[in-house]
Design brief:
This protein has one helix at residues 42-53, and strands at 12-13, 20-21, 29-33, 36-40. With 61 residues, it is α+β, with helices and mostly antiparallel strands. Strands 1-2 form a two-stranded antiparallel ribbon. Strands 3-4 form a two-stranded antiparallel sheet. It binds zinc ion (ZN).
């Protein structure tokens, strides 16, 4: 079990593939959702661009 992060910049997790990083890389994208800010890694961002701009919208996230 891991303790709750208390630092101001906790590790980030890609909300799509689960990839983690010590800090939010600039290449990651974030989107504000009702549940909070979700971060998506650069790979997923690129992979999802087509979906985002296509038929699938935020409901898919
Ligand atoms: Zn990802």
């Amino acid at each position: 079990m891991e303790p709750e992060p208390t630092v101001s910049r906790p590790p980030v997790t890609c909300s799509h593939c689960g990839a983690t990083a010590a800090d939010a890389p600039l290449t990651w994208s974030s989107s504000t959702r009702p549940r909070g800010v979700q971060l998506v890694c650069d790979r997923c961002t690129r992979a999802n661009l087509r979906s985002i701009e296509g038929k699938l919208d935020e409901a898919w996230w």
